[in-house]
Protein: Trehalose-binding protein
Amino acid sequence: MGAHSHSDSFSYRPIGKYDFEEFIDMAIRFHNYPAPGLLVGGYMVEEAKRQIPRGVLYEAIAETGWCLPDAVQMLTPCTIGNGWLRVVHHGVYGLVLYDKFTGEGIRVWLDIAKFPKDSEIRTWYLKLRPKIEQDSDRLRHEIGMLGSDILSSGPVKVRKQHLGKRSKGRIVICPGCGEAYPAKDGNVCKICQGNTLYEPMPGMPKGGFLTGSHPEA
Amino acid sequence: MGAHSHSDSFSYRPIGKYDFEEFIDMAIRFHNYPAPGLLVGGYMVEEAKRQIPRGVLYEAIAETGWCLPDAVQMLTPCTIGNGWLRVVHHGVYGLVLYDKFTGEGIRVWLDIAKFPKDSEIRTWYLKLRPKIEQDSDRLRHEIGMLGSDILSSGPVKVRKQHLGKRSKGRIVICPGCGEAYPAKDGNVCKICQGNTLYEPMPGMPKGGFLTGSHPEA
Structure:
């Protein structure tokens, strides 16, 4: 935090029930470093939570895979693995929390029209200078001072076709590798169809994706 | 945990440095409930970590979006938001931890050939009975007793084209909505191209995705 954190002449905005400094510690533990996108994301998630009526069971959409999904996972019950958080790669710092039954919710986004002129947050968000020339202490200071002042928000409604529980459907045994997979994926599992990002190495035991029917075998 | 948790005649396998019961508490806090897929996922992640040489900077691939990504996020520094965890939807309980520079790593998967006959874990994984008729106490007991005995593993190498840092590239201002977006997405941002899962509601302020150029406006 540099010299800023030792001054008493200002105070950072809390992120929900956490002090800004507490949230930075949480960010280091979960995300490995207090990325600017995660810190602004904290304010975004809390702003959306504030506007969602109490008691509503909500799910989340993050409009970028950069940092923002982790703010959602840290501050709400929605995670990638439980399926209540969806990440869509639309390249903007926007997120939606919505009623999982009705689809009604709140969209919050980082609004560049609200960024102070010559601020480090503008430099960072618009990449006006290379990362190495950015002042990360000043950037973090600005984020903590501005809090939700640089956000905009408004109501949205998630379309019906995107609501409802995800389902794997019927499970069958793959004739290629002998493992279980969702029948809807095809006649053999997706791995035996060649969908891997990697190749097996010498010493890979039989089973799993290394079989006679596998295109890489 | 039912009656099983009060017995002293057996002990559950630890998940890395955590007791099985501790990991269940962590699973409830992060994932909202101790899903079977998350518990087996815990053993899978720890098995892969055990086989990765110490000091290697690794990244992760989860081969299903069901539960498994959360085990990775709970037990490694890799998260969706920091980009060190990738989720591919191949429908199998498999995961890879790999050296982010060389691509060399370990694949671990749930191996149905190692499931005991008539086990609840077989019933669960192959969906042999509807969820409502499954015995979740017995299932959890089996998972804690079997630990990594039902896993297989082997070396893999992530292909070169999938290695390397993700990059947003150049950032530009969208002529549609005035917000910043990655230039590589096109002439207007993806939101202004109509890529939303939701529609704006009355009261949505101007800015963000509700603009004259937006197909839904």
The radius of gyration of chain B is 22 Å. Chain B touches chain A through 83 residues (CB under 8 Å). DSSP finds five helices and eight strands in chain B. Residues 168-217 of chain B form a domain with the Wheat Germ Agglutinin (Isolectin 2); domain 1 fold (CATH 3.30.60.80).
